[in-house]
Amino acid sequence: MAIHVIQSQRIDVLLQEMLRAGHQPSANPFEALKTQHFIVPSPAVQAWLTVKLSEHQGISANCLFHQRIRAFQWFAYQAVLNNKEKVRKANIPRMIIKWRTYQVLKPYIETAHNPLALDHPLYSIVQRIYDSASRLSNSTEQQLKKQGMLYWVSEQVSRLFSNYMEYRGHCFKQHGTGQACDCSSNWLKDWGKNQPLDLDQQFFSAQTAFPGLDSKEQLAQRREVSDFAKDQAEKLEQWQRWLWHGEFHADFALMQSIDQDFWEIMDHPETRQSALTHLPKQVTLFTVLDLPPSQLAFLRRLGQYIDVLILHFNPSQEYWADTVDANWKKQYDVKLKQRFKDKHPQASDPEIEAFFEKYTLEYGQLKESRHPLLTRFGKQARDHFSLLVNLAAGENGEEWEDQFPLDYQSNLLGKVQYDILNLAEPEADSFALNERDDSIRLHVCHSSLRQLEVLKDQLTYWLSQASADQPRSPNDILVLSPDLKNLEPLIRSVFAPPPRDLFLDDQAEAVRKDSVYLPVKIAGVTPLDVQNAWQAVLGPIQLPQGRFTLEDFADWLNLSAVQTRYGMNAEQTARMIELLSEAKFKRGLDEAHLRRTLAPNDTDCRYSFKFALDRLMLGVAVPEHALWQDTLSFAFVRRDDFELINILIEIYQDFAERRHWMVEHEMGQLRNVEEWLHLLLRDLERYQKQGVTVLKPIREVIRKQITMLTLSYYQDEDALSEEQAHLLKDMQLPLPYVLQEIQGALDSQMDQAVPSGQITFSQIGQIRPVPYRLVVMLNLDSGQFPSRQSHLPFDLMDILKPHLGDRSRLEDDQGAFLDALLLAQENLWLFYNGFDLNDGEIREPSSVVQELIRHLALIVEGSSGNPNLPALAKIDGDVDVPANLQSLYSVHELQPFELQGFDAERSSRKIRYQDHWYYVAQQLQQANGARKPWAAQALAPQAAEEILLDSAQWIKQVAFPAELYLKTLGISNLKYAEGLATDEPLLLDGLEQYAVRHFMQDQSLQQAPNAAAQPELLQDQLPVGKFKDAAWAVSQLQHEQLWERVSEVMHPDPPELTAVTQRQLKIDDQTLMQITVPETPVQQWVSMTASSARGRRRAQIWLEYLLWLASLPADAPLLNYQRVEVCNDVTICCAGISPEDARMHLARWMQAWRYGQQQPLVLPAALMLATDKNSALIVQEGKKGEELDVKWQENEQGQQVLQQFDKLAAKWTDPGDYAAFDVRQDEANQAHADWAFILRDQNSLQLLTQCCEQFAYALYQPIYSHQTAEKAHAD
């Protein structure tokens, strides 16, 4: 039994060695059925190994994978030790460390001021928590801020102590029996005894970057820095030691006792054999990403009893454990020469060089760099090699084997990999770069989106170059990014499945031919459906903490998980939102929810969800606009809505039950963590019972947290004090912190990234070390990579002396870049943003990429010989690149539809396929001359057939001919739709005032005109607060004034409006029209409206007048028929037309209507009958003191035209820069959405002139002559 180490630079070689070692001959046939144990550094390696084992063996079975050495270590404890429950409960999850830290420190932040003395170990950290809330004046806000800060501190402490237990809690020396451990790295042993660390020994000896070479000034400056750092480190050490000793030492001691119990059994001859039957005969460690010395020591000791096969991915076959960073070496050499000059001022350059060569020969081997890329980026790999190389001596029977194949490709990528393998120092001009060498490519783009668009084209081309001998598939490609989470939406957009042609929707050919579908998998990111389902569960908990608007509720209701949970479909959901909107739900759950944000004396709580729901419920029983017990019924509830209202009731109850969950801690109501988790689990199960299956990952997270929490306090009484158990069992946390932990567990799936059978997108560093034929790295921008934002606060490991095997995020990213460089089997593509989108300035790539470029520029023929100053040349976009590396660069355009992007002569390095952007570029390229208007030609007249028209619809069309033309074409001009109303009205705008007056008018027609109206019937329209009474009073006054004006017209007391009915009128042989006329023969038709008499309304009144007269029988008496309408601002009167004249005028309008069906009739009534602020028509003119009139004049063609046409033209072309009304909604303006759509690319003013010449006199001259407007008198 021993440890067998096999190292190689190729993962596939390590795989072959693993397979060979696992197929050793055995006399026992049942050996083949035993479980094989593998220790892997990440889930990515586990998934890759599983696939490869299946490929080589035909099946992958009886394989047990352990994530990192620590997992196998605890598996061994569980297998060997008899007290299984003790082992199961001993481990301390990081989440439990966080929660326990929060509970321990929480009593110290309850008071208004820091209760601790200055000499208390916790004073510094508690004072920092108080300082975070010092700028807040409200005591409640201060306490919430302190709690949030404390939870953040607890999060950092959990990370710190987890690292300390791995890297600073073990002894690595072979001490004699009874000899105390004096290892400087065994901090937790000292803290367990409440003994402070010897900080002077560990760091504070005026550390220098270059021992013996720094000047006195530099040394003095470093001492000042050291004094400050020492003070900070002492404070950190004090409170961390106090917290560890008082809260976590006993748990760690229990973990160490388990380790001791394990080795007592393994070292004892009588118990060893029994223990070995529970352990595998061999365990395979397949590569490492981190190697804590304590875990390696465990494997080394275990190797005395079982076979341990270590398959180590080593970048170089040479011994490089003592190599140093190339940059550090250069600075050291400069310092060395400067020191010699200071001691020998008269020394010549040859003497300095002679001294430097002599020093290098005698001492420089200890500080050699050799290959700069390896020593710069491979610091962690060097530490791992340094730890493993100790096994090469074979003191305990260890075996060491090198498997480094030398067959590398003869391209630039192969050259770099081969030089790193041999630790070869770079030689200038040592490689002749072929112009067709595409093994390493650098793509310079303008944004992350462009990088993905370029990548899609490049991947399409790369896959298309496959052959029978060298097939290529999507699973050969790995795409890495330093910030995958922010890149995810762009990936889903660019690599989305191609759109489908509508006319081929049900056929195999439905996929559009101008798109290529590349299957991609974003590894390590929570699927969108899981996130959306989780948001559905959290909706009733989180939404009541905000304004809870109709828009927020609609977004939640449209989540598919919500619809499944409550048994709805999309149509029912839309109807629910429509019902709530019409029932006037705007914001707030109910009265209690609104009162949280209203002033104390504000008691108006209408427009809430409960207000609308009450109306809908009453509408089921009373389907009319009526008041019952202070509740206004909703009149438009349909039978199909009953089920939906019942669902809304259930939803309201769910929201009401959970409305305070997020703020219970602010209200003094506290629940323990376990209770919160069970409540959330109950909600999840309700969704799952209704068929929402995607919540399984979240359910597993919550169950895991419940298990960890239970194990943390459910231990033997002798291992845990009763007070401590009570503290853990009744651990009380606000719900937001519990949800934060669940979300953190979901986000941590980034660490669970695994290869897929598709193009795999992953965070840099997550899928390693796994080989791919093509490796792509995106967003290698300066400042983004390597990441420097993951610094861990309060970390003593970062301040004090480092030890072999320590891990840092910066070195992780650099090591991941080195792995990508070494494990790319055929191609390596590097993308970065070379331009700033804001100012267009050229930007440099990441420092890591720059170092690689400098190295390549040195070894490729044509170099300047200086690795720091390569000869530069300008390429596309004025980007400066090394002259001998120009063929590696591709500078891409800013936009995907730029014309030069689709040039047929372009190199395949910048290939573009004719996707949907090609058609955009094609249109831009062929944009010669003016675009032809689409509505310039007249349509063919419709075949004669009998039609039945509705007079109201017909009047709308002829008054606004744009609507007529679009309807004839069957075109719906989509307009911007306003969002759902989310604010209750504080004032009534014009439309809302009209709605109130119109309601009062309808009420007065159903009752006596002078009957008192009920303001309660308008509680769904009147504004909130004190403006409610004011709006009601103003509307009532306006309504009374309308009736007074009706009385002036009709004279009866009380006044009555003319009753109307529906009849059919035969316009011609093919046309019938449903019209509205007085119910009984009358001479005067009087009506009243709450709206103003604008141009379109005046045209409607006139056309109703014509239709009424045209419907009179031929023998009707020739009377002076009048059509009178009392409007809000004026009284309109139409008179002086005989029935025969009315039929003639009506025929002209029908002629214009038919013309408007064939081509645009640019003659809107809103323009022709537009008025000024005095309600006078703008086309009227007259001298002062004279009556205003519309004047016409005859043109050269004998047509009557308006003399005041310039006023119409001015209003038609008004840009509306200072208008209070949006001209895009003004029917009298060419900028109206419909007019702008129809008249695009045409001269709208010329068309207006033509239509006025052809139709204005015939249609509108009778209106100018026979319609009057009497302005209402102001009181």
From TrEMBL:
Keyword DNA repair: yes
Gene Ontology CC annotation, any one: exodeoxyribonuclease V complex
Signal peptide bounds: none
Subunit structure: Heterotrimer of RecB, RecC and RecD. All subunits contribute to DNA-binding.
Pfam families xrefs: Exonuc_V_gamma, RecC_C
Protein name, as recorded: RecBCD enzyme subunit RecC
Single GO MF annotation: DNA helicase activity
GO terms under biological process: double-strand break repair via homologous recombination
Keywords carried by this UniProt record: ATP-binding, DNA damage, DNA repair, DNA-binding, Exonuclease, Helicase, Hydrolase, Nuclease, Nucleotide-binding
Domain (RecC C-terminal) ranges: 952-1170
InterPro entries per record: P-loop_NTPase, RecC, RecC_C, Restrct_endonuc-II-like
Alphabetized HAMAP family for the sequence: RecC
Function: A helicase/nuclease that prepares dsDNA breaks (DSB) for recombinational DNA repair. Binds to DSBs and unwinds DNA via a highly rapid and processive ATP-dependent bidirectional helicase activity. Unwinds dsDNA until it encounters a Chi (crossover hotspot instigator) sequence from the 3' direction. Cuts ssDNA a few nucleotides 3' to the Chi site. The properties and activities of the enzyme are changed at Chi. The Chi-altered holoenzyme produces a long 3'-ssDNA overhang and facilitates RecA-binding to the ssDNA for homologous DNA recombination and repair.
Additional detail: In the RecBCD complex, RecB has a slow 3'-5' helicase, an exonuclease activity and loads RecA onto ssDNA, RecD has a fast 5'-3' helicase activity, while RecC stimulates the ATPase and processivity of the RecB helicase and contributes to recognition of the Chi site.
Family: Belongs to the RecC family.
Highest taxon in the source lineage: Bacteria
